[in-house]
Design a protein that fits this description.
The protein is an alpha/beta fold. The chain folds into three domains: about 260 residues, ABC transporter type 1, transmembrane domain (ABC transporter transmembrane region fold); about 170 residues, Rossmann fold, CATH 3.40.50; about 70 residues, P-loop containing nucleotide triphosphate hydrolases (Rossmann fold, 3-Layer(aba) Sandwich). It contains 20 helices and ten strands. A six-stranded mixed sheet has the order 6-7-8-3-9-10, sandwiched between helices. A four-stranded antiparallel sheet has the order 2-1-4-5, covered by helices on one side. The longest helix has about 55 residues. Adenosine-5'-diphosphate (ADP) binds next to helix 11.
């Protein structure tokens, strides 16, 4: 019972959160329109100008001139009059068709793409700024994904929905005026659909419930789909019949979908049925009987008017119905735009003050640094202090989960410490220009990524400049990747992965790691971070790479993380991390002499390599 109440309150809170004030809704729609206006004012003007021209013309040819023609026939008017009316209708229709075709098939697709690109660029620029912690906050991440997926389409949908509304208002006004002129009582039939508002609200509510219940089902289907098409799952999917398990999951989503539709589907059908009956029987048929009665029984209405009434009453009820739906659509668009706006408005916490000085070479020190991930119950780093002197090479070692990678994330200012500070030459790095600070690092991460771009771009990770090819080639030589790259037909210009280029190259994991390592050799940055840089390399490649690295690292400060303690032996200083603290530090010889945990770990690993006797 209490649990049920809790669930209910949570749901209510969520619904409340999803409700936007009218002012905010309007502001969201205005925001969407502003995006289009900023991207292409001329497209914006032509788009709505067309509506203001075509909507009255549509009424003129579809209802007004039609009435004139039938009435002229009935009154035996001269054929020239009738032909003139018909020619006007034909000419307007032909012109409208040509211009509409041009607009929708030639101009609109290009503009649609252009606006999409501009909106996406805004989102990508923001995405490049947001701090890593945002990726770990589900509510924010959901918004982020939704904004990325939907933003540009929603912006267009707002434009179309407003266009639709303008069209309906014009059509409604023209047709109502015509009916009013013919017989004011007819308006009653036209207004009838408004009385069905409560049924429509019920129908929309059911639609909303279906959409909400469908979301988790869709997410599961998407997950199953990903496991089938993403390369990273391909091996496991083929082992142990995992794909059969995934197909079971797909079947389960179908069962859930069926159950969900069973729950809401019949009610939705009833709501729709009442709406249709109300519209078609009461409104259209009622007006039809009234018009036919006046034309035939009373003889007080012309056949032309009778035909126009049937035509206009249908249009009016359609417009009213459609307009109510349009307002519901605005509400939905507004919720999506709200997500986009709150993503764009997100205040980035990791930034530097204006006119902050650029980063320079020097010493980096951690001063009593503590850190806790958002939502976590414990600090991952606890009172960590050490200094990386200019040109010094230090190794961070320790068991999994001891906090090494987190320390590197703080060093790169991907996160800010929750306690203490990280300084460059005594200045808190928060006060140093962030872009130049990050630019002063070359990094290889253990979960390195290769981009579907040329080898050269994968090495340089930035826009090209003159002389880059030689720079990238040298870096590849140093990292040991050039041997393989030089065998490729297009060499360094080869696209990596075949996702977008059939002539692209798929490299082995070891070769990919060598390419990512070349990133460190390519630029002479004052600092280098190597997080498990040789995990995918064979022993010979690893040995060569370390030799080259030693040469390349002269004069640079290097932080190096490795599970293989043998590769830490040459470091100027080794820091052993345990439970988020630095528990031992010194050179290899000092730590071995101290005979602490480092010495124990080193001996254990050595045993695995050379056998117990040799290690002791
Ligand atoms: P190491 O690199 O030494 O293996 P990490 O720095 O990756 O250790 O992780 C240290 C601890 O922080 C681990 O207990 C891990 O579970 C936790 N941790 C790492 N990343 C996150 C995160 N994004 N959110 C919450 N906890 C995390």
């Amino acid at each position: 019972m209490t649990q049920n109440n809790e669930k209910k309150t949570k749901k209510e809170k969520k619904e409340k959160k999803n409700k936007l004030s009218l002012r905010r809704k309007v502001s969201n729609l205005a925001f969407a329109l502003r995006q289009i206006w900023e991207a292409s004012p001329s497209y914006f003007i032509v788009y709505y100008l067309c509506t203001f021209i075509w909507a009255p013309l549509d009424f003129l040819t579809g209802s007004y001139l039609l009435r004139m023609i039938v009435n002229s026939v009935e009154r035996d008017s001269p054929p020239e009059t009738i032909i003139t009316y018909m020619l006007v209708i034909g000419a307007v229709q032909i012109a409208a068709n040509i211009l509409n075709n041009m607009f929708w098939n030639v101009i609109s697709p290009g503009q649609y793409h252009r606006i999409g690109t501009i909106v996406r660029k805004k989102l990508f620029n923001k995405a490049a700024e947001v701090e890593l912690a945002c990726y770990e906050t589900p509510a924010f991440y959901d918004k982020y994904v939704k904004a990325m997926d939907e933003a540009h389409e929603r912006v267009h949908k707002v434009m179309q929905t407003i266009d639709n509304l303008i069209w309906r208002i014009i059509s409604l006004a023209c047709n109502s005026m015509l009916l009013f002129v013919i017989d004011p009582w007819l308006i009653v039939f036209g207004l009838f659909p408004l009385l069905l508002g409560f049924v429509r609200r019920w129908y929309n509510k059911l639609n909303h419930s279906i959409a909400v219940d469908k979301k988790p089902i869709d997410r599961r289907i998407k997950y199953v789909r990903r496991t089938f098409y993403l390369g990273e799952y391909s091996k496991e999917m083929r082992m142990g019949n995992m794909y059969l398990r995934m197909l079971d999951e797909l079947e389960a989503t179908y069962r859930d979908f069926k159950a969900m539709m069973h729950k809401h589907g019949i009610k939705r059908a009833v709501a729709k049925y009442i709406q249709s009956i109300g519209l078609e029987v009461v409104c259209v048929m009622g007006a039809m009987f009234y018009a036919v009665w006046r034309t035939t029984a009373q003889g007080t209405m012309t056949i032309g008017d009778c035909i126009v009434i049937l035509n206009s009453i249908g249009t009016i009820s359609y417009c009213l119905n459609n307009m109510v739906q349009t307002f519901a659509d605005f509400g939905e668009h507004s919720l999506f735009i709200e997500d986009v706006r709150s993503f764009l408005d997100h205040e980035v916490k990791i930034k530097s003050p204006e006119n902050a000085p650029p980063a320079e070479r020097g010493d980096i020190s951690f001063e009593n640094v503590s850190f806790r991930y958002e939502g976590a119950e414990q600090d991952v780093l606890k009172d960590v202090s050490f200094t990386l002197r200019q040109g010094e090479h230090i190794a961070l070692v320790g068991q999994n989960g001891s906090g090494k990678t987190t320390l590197v994330k703080l060093l790169l200012r991907l996160y800010d410490p929750t306690g203490g500070r990280v300084c460059l030459n005594g200045e808190d790095i928060k006060n140093i220009d962030l872009a130049s600070y990050r630019d002063s690092f070359s990094c290889v991460f253990q979960d390195f990524k290769i981009f579907s771009m040329s080898v050269e771009q994968n090495v340089l990770l930035r826009r090209s400049r003159e002389g880059d090819t030689a720079l990238a080639e040298n870096a590849l030589r140093e990292s040991g990747a050039y041997e393989k790259i030089s065998t490729l037909e297009k060499g360094i210009a080869t696209t990596l992965t075949r996702e977008f280029d059939e002539e692209g190259a798929n490299l082995s994991i070891g070769e990919q790691q060598k390419v990512s390592l070349a990133r460190v050799f390519a630029e002479d940055t004052p600092f280098a971070v190597l997080d498990e840089p040789s995990s995918a390399l064979d022993p010979i490649a690893e040995h060569k790479m370390f030799e080259n690295m030693r040469r390349a690292a002269v004069g640079r400060s290097v932080i190096f993380i490795s599970h293989r303690l043998s590769s830490a032996v040459d470091a100027d200083r080794i820091y052993l991390m345990d439970g988020g603290r630095i528990t031992e530090s010194g050179t290899h010889a000092e730590l071995m002499a101290a005979n602490g945990k480092y010495a124990e770990m080193f001996r254990l690993q050595a045993e695995n390599y050379v056998g117990r006797e040799a290690a002791v």
